Amino acid sequence: MIIDFITLSNYGPYYGTQKIDLSPVSQDKPVVLFGALNGSGKTTLLDGMQLALYGSRANCYDNKSSFSKYLKEKINDNSAQVAKTFVELQFRHYSEGKEDIYKIKRSWILNKDNKLLQTIEVWNNNKPDSLLADTWNDFIEGVIPASIAHLFFFDGEKIEDFAELKNAQKLLKIAINSLLGVDIIEQLNSDLLALERKKKTNLKNDSERQAIEVAQKNVERLEKEKEVLVSRKAKLQNEFQRAEYLLSKLNDKFNKEGGDLYLKQKEIDKEKITLENRLGEVNKYLISIASTSSPFIMVDNLLNNLLEQVNVEINISEAKLLNDKLEKRDSKILEMLKQLKNESPVSKNIEDFLTEDRASTKEQASGELFLNCPADTNNQLKQLKNELPVVEDKYSTYAELANNLQDKLDLIERKISAIPNYDMIAPIIEDKK
Known about the structure:
Layout (H helix, E strand, L loop, with lengths): L1 E10 L2 E8 L20 H13 L12 H7 L11 E11 L2 E13 L5 E9 L2 E2 L1 H5 L1 H8 L15 H5 L1 H16 L1 H21 L3 H51 L2 H5 L1 H26 L9 H40 L5 H21 L11 H42 L3 H11 L1
Antiparallel strand pairs: 1-2, 1-3, 3-4, 4-5, 5-6
Helix pairs in contact: 8-14, 10-13, 11-12, 11-13
């Protein structure tokens, strides 16, 4: 496992969002070294890694209080009450000759009722994977088991714990006190206090001595009862820890067999029905869009060519109509000029201009009509062209929504396929009871 980076947000002394790159510079320089004063957050950084990977099973959580209380204590004091706290870790892991990138993010936030809300998110090769998030404990056990995580995640201050120097110091202190006779002095002091109490008792009158003796007997009786209760408490504590350990093992086995998914089966089935209904509604709407002008989106270039051809034929039709009118008009004008017997250059120029103008219009009118469309075809095509972007935008939006719903439905199908039969987990459930 190669850790790429860790991100801490409002966690312990880390205010705001702090992302720390842990990727080695090169293979020749594989060590990333942190140095800072005590209390700067070195151990907190290491605890954040374990918390991201193992949650309540992390070594940094000592089980002395509830895990929710532990997380509340880890919220930065300067962050807003509504600010989210999270730890995020990305690492690479090689399995069967293939490298995969995993990212896990554990978040928690206090709601208005001061209740802690926790979430866990997992990405596999940069893609969200809720199924892996549900079975993360089983997965990470196959990478680095929580029981030996302390051998991989420790700082310089914790090396002392491995060597158990504190216990050695205690034993050494007892040995030195014995050599110097300090333990005798302590015992003598205790005996003198007992003798002093006895002498004071002898100086009392009979009734007072009797009362003191009764009190002493009560104290002795209570001390014996205390010893019995302490012994019983220790026995019960051992039984509780043993039962807690067995229950933890059963829970791990239960989750590994998919028991957590089995417990959520009704919720998963309900979510599947909701997604199927929603996807059906979206598909119906897509079909209704397809029954309008949306198919023309696929032939947009052909529509442009069609509109261009319609405009050409409109000009040809108009030129043909105009040509017939121009011939009649020009004939009348030339006849009038002849009647006036006007042989001036102006008359000649007018005749030449009219002849040239008719020739131009006739040439334009000589084009062939292929479509012979109605007069309002141009307007209809322009209206269709204006509608297509709106239709395309609607179709794209709902098509994307349909794809997202299908992805979620596929994920639900994966979860359902991972739900075990009751017969597979029934023995574990009975053992837990």
